[in-house]
Amino acid sequence: MESDTTVRRIKPSSLGTHNSYAGAGHRHGWDNGWSGGEPKRKPDVSLYLLREGLATSLVCLFILLLWGLVHLSLQQLVIGKPSAEFNAERARWHLERITSVGPRPVGSHENEVLTVVYLLEQIEKIRQETAQGPHQLTVDVQRPTGSFSIDFLGGFTSFYDRVTNIAVRLEPKGGTQHLMLANCHFDTVANSPGASDDAVSCAVMLEVLYSLANQSTPLQHGVIFLFNGAEENVLQASHGFITQHPWAKQVRAFINLEAAGVGGKEVVFQTGPENPWLVQAYVHAAKHPFASVVGQEVFQSGVIPSDTDFRIYRDFGNIPGIDLAFIENGFIYHTKFDTADRILTDSIQRAGDNILAVLKHLLMSEKLADSSEYRHGNMVFFDVLGVAVVAYPARVGTIINYMVALATFVYLARKASLPGNRGGRYVRDLTCATGMVVLSWLVTLLSVLIVAVLVTLLGRSMFWYNHFYASVCLYGAAATGKMVLVHTLAKNLYYGGVRLVELGDLYFDVSLLLWCCSLVWLTQRGLCSAYVPMLMVAFPLATKLLLAKEFKNRGASFKYSVLYLLGLALPYLHFMFLIWVVFEIFTPIMGRSGTEIPPEMVLAAMVTIGTILISSFFIHFIYLMRSTKWILAGLASIFTIMFLLVSCSLLFPYSGSPDSPRPKRVFLQHTTRTFHDLQGRVESQDSGVWINSFDYTGIQHITPHIPEINDSVRTYCREDRPFCGYPWFLPVKFLSKRNWYLPAPQVSPSSPVEFSLVSKETTPWGTIKMIFDVKGPSHMSLYLMPRRGASLTSWSFGDGTPRFDVSGEYFVFYSHGLDAPTWTFWFEIQPPSNPSGPEGIISVAISTHYFFGEDQRTPQLEEILHRFPSWVFPSFWVSTYDMYRY
Fold first, then answer.
1. Residue tagged active-site, from 52, 110, 112, 231
2. pLDDT of residue 423
3. Are strands 810-816 and 156-161 parallel, antiparallel or unpaired?
């Protein structure tokens, strides 16, 4: 270091005496704390301050290097040599055959016949090839009928009739009493081939079944491979299996294979409830581990609008399990781009290696036979760049967390007890500095949110959807610049008489204290994710203690700075991986979160919070630098350039590129709506193409391509009609309140709905019981809206008690497989004391949805579909809506 970057260590002779030094301002002496009243002594050593350029280079290099390591680890799908027991090429062949039939909605010929026939053929081949081995293989095709209520999407009731399950039981010859369950689903949403969700999982399961059946060593327990044909219909087939199949009573645990993205690594994102032995089995057996308890606690908090069969097996089967899912590239999840060619063979290999190894371990484990003995307790688990998994019991984690917190408070208390810090001086300074840091956070968050509001008002929302790093440059530069500015002002104006080296030490303590507080808070709440702040406290504290002598003697020297960053490397590496997971999941979700949630605010807040957390242990560098003017100038330049690019519409949110599509999702229903009065007469009828945009930008980018889709045809909710009078497939009207209705000719499906009131009678207890018959397509939605003063008391669904009243309305989701009989249901309603008026006591509406076959398309739909640009994914079908008053 050159001499102009040093400052002498000077001890003032009394508390009120200041000594000035070039470039350092007036400074108090502070030996690991404020000091005063000591005798004047000769300067004994020079303490270094960091050069602005060097500090910036070190921090940027540190962050870029760790971010590069995170991405390098994500690209290494298979660590080491792949297992010879699992043949990924054969699994890929299964995947291509399953997806070759196209979309597979429940009730379609593709789902109920073609896919079922293919799976049964492959299973029969495996059975014949392994008939002479030590295992027996039994196949059962189940077509259950049932009903249940679920608190998903605000809550609704589900009814299914003759949906399809293919259950394959593999066990030692002679039978077994204890079974594992492996679950996948082969059905898809409409208009998507569903390669990742979830055909690839079924392909992997076929190959795992083949491998296990060919083992020469008999398994100790049995396993059921459930190929479930109705998951996309909100988890219906899994409910039919676990509540009705005779084999279900022997299931002790399960593995569920799912997808929230396309390809990449499959991550363990849910386990339990409790039963830590399952996590231990994964840790012990998985060849290419990828797991995080943080993902589990985030997913189970409900902030991610999704659910899996894990919930059904947990809540209705009372069995524990492991939930795995592909999470990368969620931009094309549930779209036409979810094709087999986008899934790398290495992704299939790693998933197969992991599932096979974990299943083999569990099927040979004594714990499966008596899992209740090992039930209690949770596990803290996380992987290190996919190379290894760290796992330990939550109770051990609690002890570790409190030990780390205690060590931190001892460290701070020792500082407070030093001679120069007595009388509460250090505590006051630490409190003041903590307040300064919290203030900088609030000012930063507010400032960035103001920028996000401006971007939204300019009509440039979601520019980052196809340009993620542009959001980092815009919001990250704004957040970093604001924090640097606040602390620079504090250093120059508020701390004008304090030595910079000692200020740097103080602000390190502040960061340590804040992370420690979050550690204690999360631990007290019983969250296993508390391991994250534990790492962010333990490693920096140990690093600081090891470098204490270097810092005391030389200050912020180059050696100190490099060693300090090396000490932070491991926790920061893991923390940046978690940040990648958050953005990998939530950025695509913003493209399907509806028109009511402002995504700009959400993403700006996420980038700001990430910046705040990453910068926490770099704040003290601001105080160890002589100047920050070039940093501020550079950040301001980056922010200004990015804001201009965004403002000038140079960053378009969507892309139709075949290599990296970022499609805008639009739902189109060509529908006919009919409304009946109390006498059953048609009081009004209309037809049109009902358009739902499932992101915040609505139709602003579509109108230039299709001018007739504009705000002049925007619809508004009719509160007097069930679910606003429109054919909602699921109860998500609260997510998408901006819809458009383009007039079109009436639809004429070949199998129109038949809806009739069979009987209406008054019961001895004063209610009115109504029985209905419905015959229609495979997907229908029933809406019930009791009028003011009336209330539903019982019905034929679930356990008989009407549940999940959403703003005075009830939603029943119906689906069926092949050859389903007429749907008969009933409900009882308590009428109001004065039942009068044209609205009656209840409005009943039925909507039908034609997701496949000739009825899915109309000439009007075809014409408008061809006009959408390539960056739009229009999911389309024909529907009807009929409302009756009683």
1. 231
2. 65
3. parallel
